[in-house]
Amino acid sequence: MTLGDIIKKYRKENNISMSEFACNCSLSKGYISMLENNINPRNNKPISPTLPSISKVASGMRIELDTLLKMMGNEQTVDLTCEHNSISNLDKPKTLDVVIEKCEEPSSKSQIQRISRYAKLYSLYNQLSSSNKDKVFIYTKNLLSTQQMEEDLLAAHAMTDVEQTSEDVQYDLDIMNDDSEWER
Prior knowledge:
- This protein is mainly α.
- It has eight helices and two strands; from the N terminus they run H-H-H-H-H-E-E-H-H-H.
- The longest helix is centred in the C-terminal third of the chain and has 30 residues, at 130-159.
């Protein structure tokens, strides 16, 4: 089922006009019409909605995003977009190198799960104030730094002739996570 098919069915079952549904989703009536018709009028090809748009549709339907993604079926592609950091392209959304096509292959389940996690994170992030968004970046950088130190420590132990027990590994990790062990 395409996203448009799902929207049509939802509107019919709930006796909701296209305008009312668009308002519930914070999307335009024209965009909802494009989704329902599954045609991009610019190129007459099937529409590939963005993840934020799909998230808004899920919100308008009062369901979880991952539930909606599972309902969409094999026919629908999802266009993952982000803002490009280049000043000249600041206002132009850029399609990532990956357009996820959902299929029946085993790898598609993990792709859908990744998309769902990304969408949840994106939704939560957009609810934050600007100062808290900055804190997310700082925390993420610090978390990655800690992860790298842990990986380096475990790799160093793996390169030695000394056999490392699980207790030794846990001791090393405890030291890494105990701020009192580090000089300031």
